[in-house]
Amino acid sequence: MKGLSKEYKIKDNMSDSVGLITSILVRYPEVATIIFDPEQQVLKMTFILKKNLDNITKEIMTSKVTDSLEVYNFLEDREPELISIGQQEFDQFTLIEIQRDIETLMREEIGLTVQLFYDLFCDYLVTDYNNNYYFEEDLIMQEEIIEQMLQNLKIKSDNKHWYAFREEGRVLVFNK
To answer: DSSP for 116-134?
Structure first.
């Protein structure tokens, strides 16, 4: 238990936005990068696919993800200010970026988004499963941290633009 209290203490000393993006990357190995934009109050999550998508697949993916997030928010009685999906093609890779406003974003919606991409592209989704050493309790703790950091950002936002990504099993965070 000493390790857990130390973990929380470390988290308390860093900004909520850094804690949020770090915890999302730790919890969800399917997410490649995260950007927090304080001016727009937007969180941008990027997924990487090991293939290029044809136009029909892009339309189907955009429709399924957008519809799923809209239905989820409708059931939660929330109206998102921003749900945006963009793609970029690079050689044999596709980057897909989801943008969501912080004000209406919920932890469960982040999990839903990750699960949607896993279900749609499991064979092609670039993931970092080097962190198999996490126990279920650690993952639950990361979800609790994500929930708390999201709530804190809705009250008081950090004014720094943060960028986080994975490299060789580590999460790296930079002030943009």
So the answer is: HHHHHHTTTB---GGGTT-
